[in-house]
Design brief:
This protein has 13 helices and no strands. The chain is mainly alpha-helical. Helix 1 runs antiparallel to helix 10, helix 5 packs antiparallel against helix 11 and helix 6 runs parallel beside helix 11.
Length: 288
């Protein structure tokens, strides 16, 4: 069950990142974050009401609040790092956040078997290579590396926090709702501050018309991200966090494959090798 839900997480996060990346080509990144999460809040609010999940309220929801505060900060750092580039370095470095939940699992006493350790090593190497790291070219700006490492730490912290935010399925619905409300509050404040400083909230070309036409895609990104957090929480509770975290962090492979299939992007040999290593690591993790 851990492997199934963790791989579902990788699929959902990979597709959400792919969709979010496409949307930010025309729409400011802050707007994508705030609107997509706001749409997710509406759906989650309906689920919470329908399942009476508010009855699960308790101290563990503070983990969800923490995840909601950290998430937008990590995403904004990541987008800024991507803008500074090169993307071939930034993207794979962002997946290093897997070290946070894995470290938490080890501190809590989890001890994966030899096959799982080998699988984790192969999977992490595959994740980095699947991003297509640039081995030659202009030096990477120190600020880009720093922002990427901050984002990776934030992504890993969200994974660790959301895994602790609930113990039941209905409690998970409430935790995800609280996380998303916090996301919108933090992201909305950042967007307001950006606009006050002269930044844009709407696409430069097309304005409101383009923003309205993007609503279905924004809803998909927000709901896929929510669902990924949910499946990861289930995976982490069902089995070793060390296994769940590594498998969930295969999402860059999904993003690369989506770009290959849907955008006809060319895949470099190093990316293909990374995808193969990640697949081998997945098999070993599941077998262990």
């Amino acid at each position: 069950m851990t492997a199934v839900f963790a791989l579902a997480t990788a699929l959902l996060w990979g597709l959400a990142d792919f969709g979010g990346g496409l949307l930010t080509r025309r729409t400011p990144a802050l707007t994508v974050v705030v609107v997509s999460q706001s749409l997710a809040v509406v759906v989650l609010g309906a689920v919470v009401v329908a399942t009476a999940a508010w009855s699960e309220a308790g101290p563990r929801l503070w983990y969800a609040v923490g995840a909601g505060v950290v998430g937008p900060v990590a995403m904004l750092c990541f987008y800024r790092a991507l803008a500074l580039g090169p993307m071939g370095v930034v993207s794979p470095l962002g997946s290093l956040g897997v070290a946070v939940p894995v470290g938490v699992g080890l501190l809590l006493g989890e001890r994966p078997g030899l096959l799982q350790f080998a699988g984790a090593g192969l999977a992490v190497a595959g994740i980095v290579l699947a991003g297509g790291p640039e081995l030659r070219g202009a030096p990477v700006q120190r600020q880009a590396v720093l922002l990427t490492l901050v984002a990776a730490l934030g992504f890993g912290a969200v994974m660790a926090l959301i895994a602790e935010a609930s113990a039941t399925l209905t409690g998970l619905f409430l935790a995800l709702f609280v996380q998303r409300v916090t996301n919108v509050a933090v992201g909305g404040a950042a967007l307001y501050a950006s606009v006050r400083r002269g930044g844009r909230a709407l696409p430069e070309d097309g304005g409101r018309r383009v923003a309205r036409s993007a609503l279905p895609a924004l809803a998909f990104v927000g709901l896929a991200d929510v669902a990924a957090n949910g499946t990861y929480s289930i995976a982490a509770q069902a089995g070793p966090v060390t296994v769940a975290a590594v498998l969930a962090n295969l999402y860059p492979v999904v993003t690369v494959l989506a770009a290959l299939v849907l955008l006809r992007e060319r895949v470099r040999a190093i990316q293909a090798a990374g995808a193969g290593l990640a697949l081998m690591g997945t098999v070993l993790l599941a077998a262990g």
